[in-house]
Design brief:
Strand 10 and strand 11 form a beta hairpin. The longest helix has 11 residues. The protein is α+β, with helices and mostly antiparallel strands.
Length: 241
């Protein structure tokens, strides 16, 4: 019974990608069960249990001629004996209605916060976001030492995208900070950048993850008006493309 299909056989099946590269990318995003195709170079093939029922139905109609085999494949929910099914990457699903403890975090805009030197509850706040307290606890944070900032621009792509909501640890930090992504102030502007401590020079390398944007150095002691406002923790409700 045929259970595996080449990426080339999946092209444009019920709205799937129109290239094998697109099929491969979708397979990785959705954790499809896959293996190297025997005698087919670098090609991969994918198990029928990985597909949406509509895709499965189209494949069977196109490639399976035996009615009994087609019926068995339609009922197949997982790989046959001897084929290890890929484990789920979801440990637990908790409905939002079961979340009991919530907290309100202030949301700041990078332009509104420019020159403030800190994320404070003041006129620089533009919104509030209500999130589960348990989510903050996972990062060792509480309502008293966490804020959210809206990311502006694409200089930190692919790590952060334009308009991402970024959770920030606002506890005071000592220099030099460990390498990582931080919300910083330089003169009268607030940025989200990656900081790397240059030990020989005793200065920070200010790095943009997007290679199209320049990186530079800054001396936190006697350079421009520089302050580390907080450590970037994680984007919240980031849209997946």
């Amino acid at each position: 019974m045929r259970e595996w299909f080449l990426g080339s056989e999946l092209i444009e099946v019920d709205g799937l990608a129109n290239t094998t590269t697109g099929i491969s990318q979708k397979a990785k995003r959705n954790n499809w069960l896959m293996r190297k195709a025997a005698g087919n170079g670098r090609a991969f093939e994918y198990h029928i249990s990985s597909f949406h029922p509509d895709v499965k139905k189209h494949l069977i109609e196109k490639y399976v001629t035996d009615p009994k085999e087609a019926k068995l494949l339609l009922a197949l929910e997982g790989p046959r004996e001897g084929v290890a099914k890929e484990p789920s990457n979801v440990s637990k699903i908790t409905p939002m209605t079961e979340v009991k403890d919530w907290c309100e975090l202030p949301v700041f805009d990078v332009h509104a916060a420019a020159g403030a030197g800190s994320l404070v509850h003041s006129e620089y706040q533009i919104d509030q976001l209500i999130i589960p307290t348990s989510l903050l606890a996972e990062f060792g944070l509480s309502q008293a030492n966490a804020s959210i900032i809206n990311v502006d621009g694409n200089s930190m792509e692919p790590t952060l995208s334009h308009k991402d909501r970024l959770l920030v640890d606002t506890r005071e930090l000592q220099h030099p900070v460990t390498d990582g992504v931080y919300v910083i102030r330089i003169d009268d502007a607030v940025y989200v950048k990656r900081l790397k401590w240059n030990i020989p020079k005793g200065i920070y390398n200010i790095v943009s993850d997007n290679p199209e944007h320049e990186s530079f150095e800054i001396n936190h002691k006697n350079g421009r008006n520089f302050k580390v406002i907080g450590k970037a923790i994680a984007p919240l409700f980031k849209k997946i493309f």
